[in-house]
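Give me the 3D structure for Thiosulfate:glutathione sulfurtransferase-like.
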Amino acid sequence: MKTALCGVRSQFVSVMFFCMLYRTACQVGSCRASASYLRAFATSGPRFGETNSDVSVVTYVQLKSMLFNRNIQLFDVRNPDEYQEGHISEAVNIPLDNLQESLKLSSEGFQEKFQVQAPGKEDDNIVFHCRSGKRSATALDIARQLGFTRARHYEGGYSEWEKLEGK
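Predicted structure for Thiosulfate:glutathione sulfurtransferase-like (167 residues):
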């Protein structure tokens, strides 16, 4: 219980800190610039008290924010039949069995095969997801081994997405 309260308190402090930054930036006359700081702050890590594994995980709220801001490269690593049954909009289906080979493609080859821009190794908006978080964790390991060091995964997976989206 004490840990949960500390987490809530640190989130509150983080939100208050961001509000102060946003207000200061707007007073200086750059609300548009401060919005980019907000996006970076909302999706960056680690924060005080987080471990490295926390940085690898994207929460539902972070995912929604990234989708809203169109600041995401979302890869669904489920099988094509699972993807066809329902998927998060903007997600590109790359089955886990094909992921390593796909991430090794040239930029042109990747774009031709998946109709989206190839992810860059330093991109911090790469997110993998699956049904429950297990395959996306494996996908994250594969991506990290290939040099995509800032990639993350949505641990809750499509199961959590459906539940929270009310589908």
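The CA atoms of residues 110 and 118 lie 6 Å apart. Let me know if you want a second pass.
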